[in-house]
Fold this protein.
Amino acid sequence: MNVLGPSLAPYIRSSRTLKKYVTPVAHWYADLMGYRKMGLKYDDLQVEENPQVQRALGRLTPRETYERSYRFKIASNCDLHHKPLPKEQWSKPEDDKRYLQPHILNIIKEEEERFTWDAMTVQRK
Amino acid sequence: MLARRASAFARSFATVVDNAGVKVAAIDNGQPTTAVTFLVKAGSRYEPKPGVAHTLKNFAFKSTGKRSALGTVRESELYGGVLSASLSREYLALTSEFLRGDESFFVDLMSSFLTSSKFQRHEFQEYVLPVVEAESTAASQNPATRALELAHSLAFRSGLGSSLFASPHSHVSLDDVKEFAARAFSKGNIAVLGTGIDSAALTQLVEKALGGASVGNVAVESKPSTYFGGETRLESHGGPETVFIGFGAAGPADPALAILSAHLSPQPSVKWSQGLSPISAAIPQGTSVQPVLMPYSDATLFGLLVQGSSPEGVKEAAKVATNALKESTGLNGDALKTAVAKAKFAAASSLDGRDGILGALSTKVFANSDASIEATLASIDKVDAAAFSKSVAAITKSKPTFVAIGSVQTLPFTDELGL
């Protein structure tokens, strides 16, 4: 179990028929979740109270960091009003990219590499 | 790709082999350890913006396509190797020293930096920039280093005048570094030098490592150097008072300047003696003078670095040094023979150590010139009193490069020294 949570996505993507039928269901569900109505992206929902995601947040560009903070402000404002945003301000599905996931995956890989190096036993041939 | 063997020189200590544009030279004296240096024409002379070469040098041994930064360090530690990168005005040198038998790993490691370095943003910000800042700060707090940087900037302006260190005023971005690396890491700009390894073995390893890789073919351009000269003074405290009196000339290295440097050097040949230098007899206590000779491929800077604890002492020592320099045009007879012998010995004994061998090879390998010590010694021997006098007169007639760092109200000006 890593900070990205359990996922069947790699298994579904590996099979062509599964991918063809499950993808529209996945898109419908992401829309139904309602985070786009608050102007958020999927990676804004990522639990950040752990060291891996904190490191990943440190790897965002200054522009990405600023836009993330701005989206949080808009979403907090929505929460205050107990209302979603007007339809023109909803975040678009084509803009809803996983900007944090590649960084998190790299960090998990790096941590695994470090553990491997630390725990290695070496034999000179 | 056929490897062309350069003509074998009598008693040469290294043969320069041209392997598809990458020059390889190696010398094997039976040492238990091997050192391989990848020399790239990516010195501060070729940088498009100030500070880029210094930043690129600090990117060495970070993540590449083959292994991460952590993997590089851990694996070379397991082999017991020492990795280092150094920057000079003309070359970037990546060196690794290791036990015999491990050469394939280390040659592969260094070549992967040249071919597949990732230049990742987070490594740039977390690893590279703090080190660049620390090195620049340390350099700016050493008055001798600062004096030499300023002297080069006055003497050569652009090209060789670019500082070896990034300054806090120049902003270097990751894209600048990537662009510079893409241009500089092309086959014609790379030479591989080895000590403690056979030339054929090294050539084979280099062919395997750099052969099929995506190494570019765009050469790095640099305008030929011109010598200008100038004067500058810098207020400073906390370090020794420093004065640099220099002269320079464009053109290939002149062996007469090596003889001049040996003649003026206050370094005694016998410990605890004062030495025969005209300078060491007359400078006041607490001051030091050392000759600085910096020959580059198409220009030379020669000078005397005067340092001391009091500005009056430094002024006095600088007067002595300048007079000694002016009087040395008339050097002949036994005094000239002494200087020639000293210069020859300095050139030959520098080959005792690994650094000296690499230094000597690096000046010759790109120029495809005679890579033997006999040639250097012969050229120093050939200088007679007339040629020496002519060379020294010519260089002292050029505009002086004068740098004063410390209490500038008391340190001398050029006219006070008679320059």
User: Anything to note?
Assistant: The first helix of chain B runs from residue 52 to 58. Confidence is low (pLDDT under 50) at residues 1-13 of chain B. Chain B touches chain A at residues 68, 70-71, 74, 78, 121-122 (CB under 8 Å).
